[in-house]
Write a structure and sequence with these properties.
- It is a single chain.
- By secondary structure, the chain is an alpha+beta fold.
- It is built from 7 helices and 20 strands.
- It has 2 domains: 203 residues, no CATH class; 97 residues, no CATH class.
- A hairpin with a 2-residue loop joins strand 9 and strand 10.
- Helices cover 21% and strands 34% of the residues.
- The strands form 6 sheets. Strands 1, 12, 13, 16, 17, 18, 19 and 20 form an 8-stranded antiparallel β-sheet that branches. Strands 8-11-9-10 form a 4-stranded antiparallel β-sheet.
- It is flat and about 70 Å long.
Length: 341
């Protein structure tokens, strides 16, 4: 039987709130369009009750994760539907076994355990059969196959070598995400503006494109629905504080801020290489709900920062000792409000 893991503590929640401004037409798909002549080929995702376009939290979170994976140079070790990504197969360091064609020996790709991996710590990880050190598997009571391999690490790969350490194949464990990314909905002022536009579509625009045959030059027209430039959405990201290690929390918040800043240089949604999905993030506010201060009082203590203008100011705040954001995360000097539950 696997040894039980200790329960993760819940010390607080850090809310990162911002306004997301669409700077070029943005498309996050909601499915195929109708087959009517002149109909839209690719629709945007919409709220079922109001019909307003919105930005799914899953799309934003997936983009932030892929950015951070690349920024931290994580190896690709997990494939799904022909798409490769990085994932921690267990809480502890180990190797992912990747089968190859033509009866070649499987590849062993090193991954960092989700207890210490900066990506998996934030975004979560799904356990999978993997190669763990036999000593670790024994220590934590993890069931494993009788097969033993001696493995040495070389860069991001594992090499079977008699001088290596003993590894066994075990069932990897999941790691829940610390990060919540909410669906982003249109701001009221943006709803009023979009309701007035006349494009033949409700609060969106159509973008005509042509696919050209490189031999015959025959054009295949298509239409994409996009959220227009100037639309603004409320962005909310929630980070769960599980440890009292302030440096770890600071690293996590810095990685979130870096991913948001890089997102501005990249694109959100589909077809970014064709000019879609440029966004800007402004008016950041941080709220910290500290639960570890509520013992016996029945209160949640809320701490808030002033508004930060953009991602540049946000990164400066994170890098400046005794800034308002540093005080919020690690001190007691920020504005404090006690809320009775």
């Amino acid at each position: 039987m696997t040894a039980p893991l200790p329960q993760k503590r819940l010390l607080g929640k850090i809310y990162i709130k911002s306004t997301l401004v669409v700077e070029t037409g943005l498309h996050i798909g909601g499915g195929e369009g109708k087959l009517d002549i002149g109909g839209i080929d690719k629709l945007v995702v919409r709220e079922p009750i109001t019909g307003h376009p919105y930005l799914p939290g899953s799309s934003i979170k997936g983009k932030l994760r892929s950015i951070l994976e690349r920024f931290l140079n994580k190896p690709l070790n997990r494939e799904s539907g022909g798409v490769w990504r990085y994932e921690s197969d267990d809480l502890l360091d180990g190797y992912t076994e990747i089968k190859q064609k033509d009866n070649q020996s499987p590849l062993l790709v090193f991954y960092q355990g989700s207890q210490t991996c900066e990506v998996s710590r934030l975004f979560g990880a799904t356990g999978k059969d993997c190669w763990l050190k036999k000593a670790d598997a024994d220590t934590y009571g993890l069931p494993y196959s009788e097969q033993v391999k001696k493995i040495k690490q070389s860069s991001n790969r594992g090499i079977v070598d008699e001088t290596g350490e003993e590894y066994v194949k075990a069932k990897g464990r999941n790691h829940p995400a610390r990060l919540i990314v909410r669906d982003s909905h249109l701001q009221d002022k943006s709803i009023k503006k979009l309701e007035k536009i006349d494009t033949g579509l409700f609060m969106t625009e159509r973008k005509f494109e042509n696919g050209l045959d490189r031999i015959t030059s025959a054009a295949t027209p298509r239409q994409f629905e996009r959220v227009p430039k100037g639309a603004t959405f409320d962005l909310e990201i929630v980070y769960t504080v599980e440890v009292e290690d302030k440096e770890q929390v600071k690293t996590d918040i810095e990685n979130i801020a870096l991913a948001l800043a890089i997102l501005e240089d990249d694109a959100l949604g589909g077809h970014g290489s064709r000019g879609y999905g440029k966004i800007k993030l402004i008016d950041f506010v941080f709220d910290y709900h500290k639960y570890n201060l509520t013992k016996g009082s029945g209160r949640i203590v809320k701490k808030s920062t002033p508004e930060f203008q953009d991602t540049s100011e946000l990164l400066t705040q994170l890098d400046t000792r005794d800034s308002e954001l540093q005080k919020l995360l690690f001190g007691d000097a920020a504005q404090t409000t006690a809320v009775t539950k």
